[in-house]
Specification:
By secondary structure, the chain is mainly β. The chain has helices spanning 147-158, 172-184, 193-208; strands spanning 2-5, 14-17, 26-30, 36-44, 47-56, 61-64, 76-82, 92-93, 97-101, 106-110, 120-127, 134-138, 212-217, 223-231, 234-243, 248-252, 261-269, 272-275, 281-285, 290-293, 304-310, 318-323.
Length: 331
C-alpha cells in the first residue's frame, strides 16, 4: 500500500494506490467525499494526448486512458478537481507536470505551449509501471467504502443542511437532513445514492455558484493568493492558491455576508516573490501552504506578518478581485 501526498489549492488531497490484478485499461477511483472531474494524458506520436473531463461521484470508479498499453513503460498523467458546488472552494489532486486543459470537455494532442492553443495549464501527477493499473483519489480521512455516504453528507452541508461532521456514517442527523432535502425538492421517495448525489449537487450549485471570493490574475506571470477572514469569533488566514496568468480561481466559496474578509497576493517569478502594495490589514502568512489562527504575534508564532487588502462589500454573497502587474511591488 503506497501513498503519495499531492499539493492542493485548498485542502490536502492524497493519491492512494492499492494492489490490483493486471488490467486491460487503467482504472481511476474516487474515494473522497467530493464529486471530482478528472483529466488524463499519455504520450502519442506528435505530442501528448490529453482528455477531460471525466466525472466521478464519491465511491465510483471509471476506466480511463484506454489507448495506453499497460504492458509497456508508457506513463499516465492525471489531474483532478472537485465540483464548484462545495463550500470552501475547489480542491485539486495534482502533481508537478504542466499539461493543457480546457474549461469544458476537451480532447487534444498538444506539443506546444498551452496558451498558443487557447488552453490553460494544470500540473498533472504521473503514474508509472504497475501503479498505472489502479489509482485511487482520497483525502486525509480515508473513507474507503464509506465515500458514497460521505459524499452525500458533504453535499448536504454545501446545500445548507445541518451536517456537522462528514464521516461517512449514516446516522440520524444525515437521515433527517436527507428527508428535509427530499421534502424541499418535492421528492416522495429516496432515490439511489447516485441520483441523490446529482440532485444535491444541483441544489448546492444553485446556492453557492455565485458566492465567495474569486481571484483573477492579469499579471504577466503566476501569482500566489492568501485570504484572511473571521470564522465565528476567530480570525484566520489561509494560503496559498497559485493562479496562472490570465486565469481565475474561486479561493473561498463560503457566502460573504459582510466586508469582513481580506486578501493578499505575491507575484511569483524566477527572482523570487513580490508582495502586494497598499495593504493595511495585518495577518500572518508562511512560505508554504498554511492555516494560521489569530492576527497578532505572527513572528513569535513562527509566521511572517503581511499587509492584506480588505474586500469591498460583496454582492449577493460574492466578490471578484482582479490583480495586475501594478498591484505588486517593483523588483
Amino acid at each position: 500500500m503506497l501513498r503519495f501526498l499531492l499539493a492542493g489549492l485548498v485542502a490536502l488531497p492524497v493519491l492512494f494506490l492499492t494492489s490490483a490484478p493486471r488490467a486491460d485499461a487503467a482504472e481511476l477511483c474516487n474515494e473522497t467525499s467530493y464529486i471530482v472531474e478528472a483529466a488524463a494524458a499519455w504520450a502519442v506520436e506528435g505530442g501528448v494526448a490529453i482528455e477531460g473531463w471525466t466525472r466521478l461521484r464519491p465511491g465510483n470508479c471509471v476506466t480511463i486512458a484506454n489507448d495506453v498499453d499497460l504492458d509497456s513503460d508508457q506513463p499516465i498523467f492525471y489531474y483532478a478537481k472537485s465540483s464548484i458546488a462545495y463550500l470552501g472552494g475547489v480542491r485539486e489532486w495534482r502533481g508537478t507536470v504542466p499539461l493543457c486543459v480546457d474549461e469544458s470537455d476537451f480532447e487534444v494532442v498538444a506539443n506546444t505551449r498551452c496558451s498558443s492553443l487557447g488552453m490553460a495549464s494544470r500540473d498533472f501527477f504521473i503514474r508509472e509501471g504497475d501503479d498505472r493499473e489502479r489509482t485511487v483519489l482520497v483525502e486525509p480521512v480515508n473513507f474507503g467504502s464509506r465515500a458514497g455516504i460521505a459524499g452525500i453528507q458533504r453535499l448536504l452541508q454545501s446545500a445548507g443542511y445541518p451536517i456537522t461532521a462528514v464521516d461517512g456514517l449514516s446516522g440520524r442527523s444525515t437521515s433527517r437532513s436527507v428527508s428535509s432535502f427530499l421534502s424541499d425538492a418535492g421528492l416522495t421517495s429516496r432515490p439511489s445514492d447516485d441520483a441523490l448525489i446529482d440532485a444535491l449537487e444541483a441544489r448546492a450549485l444553485g446556492r453557492n455558484a455565485g458566492s465567495g471570493l474569486t481571484m483573477c490574475n492579469e499579471a504577466d506571470g503566476d501569482i500566489a493568493v492568501a485570504i484572511g477572514y473571521q470564522l465565528g469569533t476567530i480570525w484566520q488566514s489561509r494560503g496559498w492558491w497559485r493562479i496562472h496568468a490570465g486565469e481565475c480561481a474561486r479561493v473561498l466559496a463560503t457566502r460573504l455576508e459582510t466586508a469582513n474578509a481580506f486578501y493578499y497576493a505575491e507575484r511569483i517569478n524566477t527572482a523570487g516573490r513580490r508582495g502586494l502594495v497598499e495593504g493595511n490589514e495585518s495577518f500572518c502568512i508562511a512560505p508554504a501552504r498554511f492555516v494560521a489562527e489569530g492576527r497578532t504575534d505572527c513572528i513569535d508564532r513562527g509566521y511572517t506578518a503581511a499587509s492584506f487588502r480588505r474586500i469591498a462589500q460583496p454582492s449577493e454573497g460574492g466578490a471578484r478581485i482582479t490583480l495586475g502587474e501594478g498591484d505588486f511591488r517593483r523588483p
